[in-house]
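Question: I have long wanted to understand how a fold can be written as tokens. Here is the record:
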Amino acid sequence: MTPKLIDEYSRGRPADAGRSYGWNIAGGILGPLIAAYLLLPLIGVQIALVILAAPFIGLYVWSAGRNLSRIPLQIILVSTIGLLGVSILISRGFEDDAFHDGPRQVRRDHVATVIAGGRDMNKRLLVNGVGITSLIPITKVMAHLPLALNGHAQSGLMICFGMGTTARAMLSWGIETTAVDLVPSVPELFGFFFADASSVQSDPRMHIVIDDGRRFLLRTNRRFDVITIDPPPPVEAAGSSLLYSREFCDVIKTHLNPNGILAQWFPKGENQILSAAARSISGSFRHVTIYQSVEDWGYHLLASEAPIPEITPEEFAARLPEAAQRDLMEWSPNQSLIGMTKDVLSRRVPISTVLQPDLPAEITDDHPYNEYFIVRRLAPFAVRLLGMQG
């Protein structure tokens, strides 16, 4: 009930106004609880939305039917039934079986709705309807590349668990592996993507933590040889700047061992944001280098206080433990190990190739450059439009 409706109902009577606001408060408390714990788990999003909309549609039909001179009641009924039919029979949500080519599992928690769907190599993970990741070699390289360049790693931290591919790859090196994810349901779906998930999770060297990655680091004194971050896509996502910012890089630096390496993944996005992200890292770390992904989209930004060595494909392959070799080649049956390592290492480029000298912007906590993009992208269009009008 809006304040106007309450005023019209109470007509200056304090008791009636208080009673109305009381019903509003009760509805504000009970509504989300009923929707989250009864409607969504029992009947799903689609039918729940139809049920919740039905009273308002009925109220509209009743109020419009009182004045048939405006809109014929038959038209109102036909259009209403048509819209409900489309909602029930045609409209589809991400939770629908028809949306996924194969089985799917849905988890809900206090943070998000998480969906795992598909089969074989076409499985995918969605968080609140946003595609997070899929089964691709890039997510394996996120672990194997910095670990191989480090050469003597005994511990690793993975921020943003996703499907678990990177954490699983990190564990294949036989090191202490910690994986942090904000959403409790995400690690619960690990078994949907990997048949060996239970053995990975039960490994005493694997530690899965439900927490915000940045808060986890601020509350621990542990140090790691490699820290890998896979921020949620898209790169413009609200709040994602906290995983790219200069201040977060400063926090990470205090949790790296000597010669430790930060591996920051940057998905495909506009070059200005890539430049700002690279400038944030280079402003915090002495040495930064970049590898373009093996699938030609996105970048691995590697940073360290010590020089990041260049190694040969043969050295890369020799540093991989046997389990790590199997993991790296798991989805590349037509490629040799040396061929894969050559492909990864050949994509190294200096940071100067992505830094734009005429763009001093960087991502900080106070200036989340990646999140504020609309004006930047609309400006050229507006200039062209004004030119055409002129």
In short: Residues 14-65 form the longest helix (52 residues). Residues 97-130 form one domain. Residues 62 and 71 are 12 Å apart (CA to CA).
